[in-house]
Amino acid sequence: xxxxxxxxxxxxxxxxxxxxxxxxxxxxxxxxxxxxxxxxxxxxxxxxxxxxxxxxxxxxxxxxxxxxxxxxxxxxxxxxxxxxxxxxxxxxxxxxxxxxxxxxxxxxxxxxxxxxxxxxxxxxxxxxxxxxxxxxxxxxxxxxxxxxxxxxxxxxxxxxxxxxxxxxxxxxxxxxxxxxxxxxxxxxxxxxxxxxxxxxxxxxxxxxxxxxxxxxxxxxxxxxxxxxxxxxxxxxxxxxxxxxxxxxxxxxxxxxxxxxxxxxxxxxxxxxxxxxxxxxxxxxxxxxxxxxxx
DNA sequence: TATATTGTTACACC
DNA sequence: TGGTGTAACAATAT
Length: 294
Known about the structure:
Elements: H1 4-18, E1 23-28, H2 39-46, E2 50-57, E3 60-67, E4 70-77, E5 82-87, E6 93-97, E7 112-118, E8 123-128, E9 134-138, H3 163-171, H4 178-183, H5 193-202, H6 216-235, E10 277-281, E11 284-288
Antiparallel strand pairs: 1-7, 2-3, 3-4, 4-9, 5-6, 5-8, 7-8, 10-11
Helix pairs in contact: 1-6, 5-6
The structure holds a DNA duplex.
């Protein structure tokens, strides 16, 4: 499931290969993955446009395109199982996302619902097994905010992520659980199930704790750890869950550093003698050590 | 066959 | 009424 570190990793990889490329054609095999614009308009506006930058906002990835001085942004959300794979047609693949067994053996494959062909023969595939992801086209970058139903909070790796503001934002909803607050993108973006669970473990806070029962010291620890864990994960190209596939070693190594995520029934890594518990909050799986996390 | 998964929405409840 | 929680939905691999 791509969260901030995974999307940022893909962005960095694509940035190295997509800049200055011109789209020669777009193939859509499943119309519904293109949202907010008709398929003919989508194709028409993209054909002969040139990519000039890559950006990330929360878990969305944007490619800046230009055609006759007209600017636009091609925006992707990979949701659970989306992939963005660059194929230079010389056996080199870049990008990635959720691993699908054997999905790189042949491209396009049955999950390649949208893909872009460039003038130089290379291609960018948007694959999505579950088809929950989407791609759209917006006129100006600021419109990216409107693509999310809930107002998007601060980027945790930017200078705008400030402790006081973070606490104030959380305290607006004192009765909800901290896990839910981290997940819903209002106070901080980019944190999903993996990093919510991991950062709460490292902060010694149970996912089930209500905001109103968390003190300043704990908020401070959590704030520091969120930044730390996301940075660390980006530096090792994120987390891969499930089948390891290493086309070119492009998959995340953070998986090896996971301390509670998907470790239910295993002993707590702090050697406290307890087993990690799995519990659902708002129908999402959380994992925690009942002894270490208060 | 049941389950897992995310973001969103619909709706029940106090 | 608003804040909160729960369930359903999209689709498909395991």
